[in-house]
Amino acid sequence: MTHRPAPTDIAIHPLIAGRWSPRAYADRPVAHAQVVALLEAARWAPSAYNAQPWRFVVFEKSRDADAFARAFSFLVPFNQTWNANAQVLIVVLADTLNAKGEPVPNASYDAGAAAMAILLQAHAQDLAAHAMSGFDANGFEKTFAIPERLTALSVISVAHHGDARALPSALAERELAPRARLSLEDIVQFGGWKQTA
């Protein structure tokens, strides 16, 4: 199931409403040109002072299976189970220092915006993409000699959509369950923050 628009209370753009985090992946390669398009979308994300403090390490199973397998090994076991058919892993990094070597306090925030651009572009290309925090960031940084100024924040796996029924039953249920979010009343206050019970 690739079309699962969010049941929004107010109409929003279909690209945003349609984006979700699938786990059912098909075991077939993603074209390199599609991967490059994901990264081009990230390149145009907004950032404070246009500092662009995002960096990415990309692993494509069809182009370098050994490097892909090494990167895959840093996913936590649960994420490894449903990512068996993942074709691309994109590690999202934040550059914590600017050109003068000064700290960039908003680096993670801006890198998150770039990651969201990847997710939206993947959805626009009818690809399945899922961002994960469940990985060994320290092990990854050491193994792949990531400079100290860069911090690994998340991994985005990418593939073509697969059949949810091929997932373990508990994950298949989650894959097909209705989408839900907190209400606007739960997350938004206008004119200042008022204490609630």
TrEMBL record:
What are the UniProt keywords, alphabetically? Oxidoreductase
**Is GTP-binding included in the keywords of this UniProt record?**
no
Pfam families assigned: Nitroreductase (PF00881)
InterPro entries listed in its UniProt record? Nitroreductase, Nitroreductase-like
* All copies of domain Nitroreductase, residue ranges: 16-153
- Keyword check for Oxidoreductase, yes or no: yes
Question: What does the record give under GO molecular function?
Answer: oxidoreductase activity
| Family recorded in the similarity comment | Belongs to the nitroreductase family.
Q: What is this protein called?
A: Nitroreductase
